[in-house]
Amino acid sequence: MNSASSVKFLYAAYIATWTIHVLYLGSLVRRYRRLQRQMKELGK
Amino acid sequence: MKKAFPILAVLTAFFLAYAFYQAMFVAPTDALQGDVYRIIYYHVPSAWTAFLLFFINFIASVQYLANAKPSTARTVKWTVIALGIVGFVAPFVPQVRQQLPTGMHPSAVATTALIIAAVYQLIGEFFPGQDLDVLAVTAAEVGVVFCSIVLITGPIWARPVWGIWWAPGDIRLTSTLVLWLIYVSYLVLRRFSDSAQTQKLAAVLAVFGALDVPLVYFSIWFFRTQHPQPVIGGGGSMDPRMLNVLLINWMAFLCFAFLVCWSRFRLEKLRREVEEAEALESLLEPAGASATSSTAKLPLSRRPQ
Chain B within 8 Å of A23 (Cβ-Cβ)? Predict the structure, then answer.
């Protein structure tokens, strides 16, 4: 097995993992902000 | 508790960075696979975390269904306690011990039975009423995220090691994909169904979906599959230094999953509060005003994203 090319797969796996986590955390933040905005609108 | 969150988040970030350092620079290189084997430090902990979250979803769903009637709740509670005791004692009975698969230790089975019973009681204690449903949806959603990582990192590892991205028909791979599809359908059901029975239907789906978790886990014990043998038990063997790094990474991902679940739990509680406030407001509003209102007055579940 070519070590140099296999390392690319290792990096790809780690980057994919953190990309998924960051995207999910981003979606949580977006949803949270939208709910806070709605809560404020309801409070008016 | 809210003040503890940022502190825990910073500690978890340091723990994850330490786990990454261990995985990339401290763990020895595999003699056969080279460095690409280090994918297991993200793949395996993600799988274990997903299983744990689906298990929590299962327990919360069972309790949610059982709590519909106090007598059923009591019966299920005592049944779980009885099963925990039987599960703790039975593996040490010689006749039962002989039936256990190779590599499965009686103490591990006994501990698992006891933990299941204890988790059931703890979840019932700390998540009363609707909180059980909130916990169920939280665990399912975060579990799907971790399961997605398993399904993506697995093929990335398989390509250089097996020479193929996916082994069609392999029971471990197929059952994991089915597990992911079950929980995605669970989330879709919750997102798009506006029936009053949605929560109960979702709980029933979760109970049946959880049956796939032991199938995924034990598939490599009982079936011939391309997937490597289990890391712990089941005839698998691993260098202690590698195992140590693997457990460090799992602990780090568990801390991370806990914080994500905490955030998702609070988000779901807030979503329900907003929904209730909107329903209350629409009740208090004069009839003429509500007729002119736009989508802003629709419940959240019916509102365009």
Answer: no
Decide if B302 is inside a domain: no
Q: Which of B135, B140, B142 is nearest to B67 (CA)?
A: B135
Write down the pLDDT at residue B149.
96
pLDDT of residue B234: 54
- pLDDT class of A20 with cuts at 50, 70, 90: very high
Contact criterion met (CB < 8 Å) for A20 and B149: yes
Complex prediction ipTM: 0.92
Mutant choice from B12, B20, B29, B35 vs A, greatest count of A C-beta within 10 A: B35
Alpha helices in chain B (DSSP H): 4-21, 40-66, 70-89, 94-99, 106-126, 131-162, 171-192, 198-209, 212-222, 240-284, 287-292
Q: Is A39 on the interface with B (CB under 8 A)?
A: yes
Q: Which residues pair with B30 in a beta bridge?
A: B34
Domain ranges of chain A: 1-44
**CATH number, domain containing residue B49:** 1.20.120
Q: Do the domain assignments include residue B88?
A: no
Domain of B193 in residue numbering reads as 4-67+129-260
Using CB atoms, pick whichever of A3, A5, A35 lies closest to residue B274.
Answer: A35
| Number of domains composing chain B | 1
* A9:B39 CB<8 A: yes
Distance CA B84, CA B114 (A): 5
pLDDT for position B294: 47
| Contact between chains at A6 and B260 (C-beta distance less than 8 A) | no
The answer to whether residue B95 is domain-embedded is: no
Q: Which pair of structure tokens corresponds to residue B1?
A: 């508790």
Matching residue, tokens 């299941």: B116
List, for chain B, all residue ranges whose pLDDT scores fall below the cut of 70. Answer: 1, 229-236, 286-305
- B169: nearest Cα among B226, B220, B222: B226
- Confirm whether B33 is domain-assigned: yes
Supply B14's token pair. Answer: 């340091």
Contact between residue B221 and residue B234 where contact means Cβ atoms under 8 Å apart = yes
